[in-house]
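Example 602.
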Amino acid sequence: MAIPHQYRIAPTNPAAHIYEVTVTVAQPESAGQEFAIPAWIPGSYMIRDYARHVVAVRAESDGREVALEKLDKSRWRAAATDRALTLILEIFAHDESVRGAHLDATHGFFNGTCVFPAVVGQESQRCDVEIVAPESPYGKNWRVATSMRRDGAAEYGFGRYTAADYAELIDHPVECSALSIGEFEVGGIPHAIAIRGKTRVDMARLCRDLQVVCEQQVSFLGAPADLDRYLFLLNAPGSGYGGLEHRWSSALVCGRENLPARRDDAVSNEYRTFLGLVSHEYFHLWNVKRMKPAAFTPYDLTQETHTGLLWVFEGITSYYDDLALVRSGMISTESYLELLGQTVTRVLRGAGRRRQSVQESSFDAWTKFYKQDANAPNAIVSYYAKGALIALCLDLKLRTETTGSVSLDDVMHAAWQRWGESGEGMPEDGFEKLCIEMSGLDLQDFFNATVRGTGELPLDALLKSHGVDVELRRSAGAEDKGGKSAEDGTLVPVWLGANLAARNGKTIFVSVDNNGSAERAGVSPGDELVALDGLRVDTDTCEKRSRRYRPQDKSTLTVFRGDELIELHLKWQEAPVDTCYLVSADETDDEVAARRSAWLGQ
Ligand SMILES: [Zn+2]
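Predicted structure in complex with zinc ion:
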């Protein structure tokens, strides 16, 4: 039997953010052993070249130095040896994101992609890992939270862990700090949440609510056969939002004010945002971590891996994340419709939806969605937000046109059986074919228009058939995310057509909308806004002042482009009707009411 690879990670210098990582290979390849560090991490579709954080690397065998050749940006080859070979790396870790590795005096966090080199050609071998505690004065009260299987380490302790192979090794992020930990069960499976940061959270309530959300999803697709544990790793700083999914865990960042305080029973908007994030990452344990595009089976972590299906794996997940909240009773129908109205608003406000389809957005995620520049609002569409709305339209269309006998729920069940439980990758045309096969409907035009096209989605009629009216209005200002009605007097009558942000005390045009008032006046992204009609303005006051103008009024904008002060002549355009809110229709016949409760599960 092959001897497992022995990995070891030690926070040798927290003040300098340095981990020392070693990997010992018992039987190196006879022609010389290659090692490789991933260029990207599954779930975050951008080349990150984690090997660039390697500060020093060497190899030894039997106590003697072994020659090491660097082959490219991410690979090394050690000279041939017939004894056990050890690679020793010093790695700089100062990326606080869920995709990175970080180490300082207060905590350590890492993804295996950032710190563990693969033993090329022997990736299927078992990987044993020793996670070493930092030396005093660091590490007081630190515990270890990871979904990696323990192999001698005490519960939440430093020590020995193990993973079935390299793919699994890099799928278990690890957090080491003075953690708050809560535990609960979902269908008899142990679940936990480990929180870094000073939160003063109501842990009992948090666990109760997470249990409700997770149970809803387990009851939907059924617990995967290999799901015997699950861990939410949460970093709760002053502000932030994001997550990364794994098979047995997820790494989350969410502001500490989003967490429930003691003696607080309502679901605040902030807490709803957190629950939506949790629900999203948990749904991924089916959709993308076990059922995945054929292009990801297996992952090629050396280069971009293109698929047009991210709208299925992120968009449908974004549809079910909030839907699980209303179906589980965690939020009301009204609250759910508010969230949906905000998603519609987000999509409507992005002019890029008329230029790029979600299939193109999926395919080009690597260089566009993940590398957004000043022109992004004009050029790209989010496969998350528009993908969620396509999922909604598809669900409601299937329900309506099959008179309730087939829904997106049924398609997801069948997809899970076909590609999730089998582990076979979903072909690029697999999802659409399955929808057509299951419903017996001709859905070609629907997919051409919504997934490959850039027209408007048929939201009005489909929501109407489920007792929900779509209402549109103008924006009430920069803070207005939609989802709710607004008083007439609060609406902004004119449209600047640009996004402003405060940067180092300056007010900068970060993006300029195609055909908006600003673009027609000659504003460029990067211009510094100084004055509007001779009065100094910033992000706040510019919006306030703009409420005094009417369409066709003329203004002078004073801006710095570089160090040159220039005057631009602007004609105000009418504000677009780009803000959506949804309302339950007053008079709903029984059939419509039945359709709505079947959809929302109430
Ligand atoms: Zn996601």
